[in-house]
Write a structure and sequence with these properties.
- The protein is α+β, with helices and mostly antiparallel strands and 153 residues long.
- 25% of the residues lie in helices and 35% in strands.
- The protein has a five-stranded mixed β-sheet with strand order 1-2-3-5-4.
Amino acid sequence: MTSVYDIIDKIKTYLYDHPSVNHVTFGDIKEVDLAKTTMFPLTHFNISEGTIGSNFISFNLSFLFMDIVDYTKDYDADKDMRDDASNIVDVFNTQLQAANALISNLRRGDLYSDKFQLEGDPTCRMFKDQYENQLAGWRVDMVILIPNNLSVC
């Protein structure tokens, strides 16, 4: 049985193909070198728990879709409707697009066809300056169901 490997590999493969994702990590966020600026935009995810049913295994996953906020660019706060001179709105927008693409693929794309199915509607929460390196983005929590293929014979 390779359920955990399958879910990690399929999600990583899908995310690496998205144009707003440069690097994908899995596990404890504290073990990721967030000071390494070449890995951004970054999507990090973890499995917080799993529930084994007779037909499905349900995984609770948490994702961080994030990028570095650049305060060095010349942004016009009046023109760009921003309170600060940065690309933070761009970061929020592109990272939400990456999250939405994953969610949509789980609903009706290749991941759905591969029997990775979304349960309910994911929760998306915006964050800013929670991690080193002036990062911002979205935390997305979701439940993914996969078939329980374990044979009892």
